[in-house]
Amino acid sequence: MRKIPVRYLSAVAGLTALAAAPLLAAATSTSDSTHTTHQRTQILQLVAKQTGSEDLDLGKKGLSPGDERIISEDLYRDGRKIGDHSVV
After folding, report:
1. How do residues 15-73 score in pLDDT, each as one tens digit?
2. 22-50 core/surface letters (b: 16 or more CB in 10 A; e: else)
3. In this predicted model, which residue has the larger pLDDT, 5 or 50?
4. Measuring CA to CA, which residue among 14, 49, 42 is closest to residue 28?
């Protein structure tokens, strides 16, 4: 099993949160011009701890197009597990 450094996983989680922020802001905005919309930013710091990984050799033997790597992680915030995450 190949371990992936936590710093890479934290970067992915951070970029995902940044990408979702405009969508969340758009969902909470109002079309009524008499109301003032206040936007706020909230930063969530998550730690991912890898729980497993698997490489699938699909197609031609050895490293070739179509092969897959599956990574499973538990997500923590402030030391408490809040979810899980998987990547294919």
Report:
1. 565 555 555 555 555 555 567 788 899 998 999 999 999 999 998 999 999 999 999 99
2. eeeeeeeeeeeeeeeeeeeeeeeebbbeb
3. 50
4. 42
Residue appearing with tokens 């970067």: 11
8 has a pLDDT exceeding 60? no
Cβ-contact 48, 54 below 8 angstroms: no
Q: What is the pLDDT of residue 30?
A: 53
Alpha helices (H) in 6-88, listed in sequence order: 6-28
Q: How far is CA 58 from the centre of its chain?
A: 25
At 35 the three-state DSSP class reads coil
Rounded Cα distance, 47 and 82, in Å:
10
Alpha helices of 1-88 — where are they, by DSSP H?
6-28
Dig out the tokens for 50 from the structure: 């890898």
Tokens of 57: 């050799």
34: which 2 tokens? 């008499």
